[in-house]
Each structure stands twice: as structure tokens, then as C-alpha cells.
């Protein structure tokens, strides 16, 4: 078992013992999403820590989107719960890049792509290929793409 998955299961056990309903239900759902990912496909396999992290990031993103939808629908109580679950899951993810750090990484990638001959808006694919491995798990794809577009337009 990977160390991140083991940590999640340990934290679930502690949350159940402490009768922390929010934490235990969130961790249960996340662990079931991890298990679902492990058994999907032709053969069952054990996920690496990076893959587990991706599942947790996906679950956290679902919570943020659901919180937004509930808030727009006028269900503030449910929106708060979804936000709290998202924050709880964020604790298991690597520290997110600040806007300045992301901008710096993208600026270097744009310079590198331009040196390779990529110009204008068509260079987005080349820049994204350079940026994605550097920011994997530390910045959402939409945020990265928006920054790339902005810097390519400059």
C-alpha cells in the first residue's frame, strides 16, 4: 500500500474514533474513489503516490465546483460543507503555487518555446508541454492555461 493511501486510512480510523463525521465521510469517499481507480481497467493495480494525489486533487476540485453550484442555487449550508470537505482534502495535496511563482515558470517556458521557434497563440501547445511537468499537482490546469494565454498575448 502506498504511503499516502495508508495515511488516508489511518486518518479515517482516527476520525471515526473521534466521531468526526465530516472528516470520516470525506475520507471514506476519497478512499472509495482511489479504490475505484485501482480496479478500473482490465486488471486491478495499486496506485502510486502520484496517482493517489491526482485522485485526491480530482476529488477536491469536485468539492470546489459543487460548493460553487450550491452557492449559486441558494443552498448556503450545503455549499459550506462542500467547501469544508475541499479544504480537508487540500491538506493531503502539495502546496499550490502562488500566482507569481506560476507566472515565473510560465514566463521561462514561453521564452524557451520562442527560442525553439514557436510564436504567437499557436505556441500554446509547445509552452504547455514545457510547463505541465514543472507544475504537476501544484496548479490547476485552467489556471495554468489562462496564464500561458496571457503571457503569449504580451
Keyword list:
154 residues; mainly alpha; 7 helices
Overview of this protein structure:
The protein is an all-alpha fold and about 150 residues long. The chain has helices spanning about 5-15, 20-40, 50-70, 75-90, 100-115, 125-135, 140-154. The protein is globular.
Summarize the entry for a quick read.
This protein is 75% helix and 0% strand.
What is the mean predicted local confidence, pLDDT?
84
| First-residue to last-residue Cα separation | 47 Å
- How much of the sequence is in beta strands? under 5%
Could you say which structural class the secondary elements and strand pairing correspond to? mainly alpha
The number of helices is 7
Order of H and E elements: HHHHHHH
What is the percent of helical residues?
A: over 70%
List low-confidence stretches. Answer: none
Oligomer: single chain
Largest sheet geometry: none
- Beta-strand segment tally: 0
The radius of gyration computed from the alpha-carbon positions, rounded to a whole number of angstroms, is 19 Å
Amino acid at each position: 500500500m502506498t504511503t499516502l493511501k495508508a495515511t488516508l486510512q489511518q486518518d479515517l480510523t482516527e476520525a471515526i474514533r473521534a466521531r468526526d463525521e465530516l472528516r470520516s465521510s470525506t475520507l471514506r469517499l476519497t478512499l472509495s474513489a482511489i479504490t475505484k481507480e485501482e480496479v478500473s481497467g482490465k486488471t486491478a493495480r495499486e496506485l502510486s503516490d502520484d496517482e493517489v494525489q491526482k485522485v485526491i486533487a480530482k476529488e477536491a476540485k469536485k468539492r470546489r465546483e459543487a460548493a460553487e453550484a450550491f452557492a449559486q442555487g441558494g443552498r448556503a449550508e450545503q455549499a459550506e460543507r462542500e467547501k469544508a470537505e475541499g479544504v480537508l482534502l487540500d491538506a493531503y495535496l502539495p502546496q499550490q503555487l502562488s500566482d507569481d511563482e506560476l507566472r515565473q515558470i510560465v514566463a521561462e517556458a514561453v521564452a524557451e518555446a520562442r527560442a525553439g521557434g514557436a510564436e504567437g497563440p499557436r505556441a500554446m501547445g509547445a509552452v504547455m508541454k514545457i510547463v505541465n511537468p514543472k507544475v504537476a499537482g501544484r496548479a490547476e490546469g485552467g489556471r495554468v492555461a489562462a496564464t500561458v494565454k496571457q503571457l503569449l498575448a504580451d
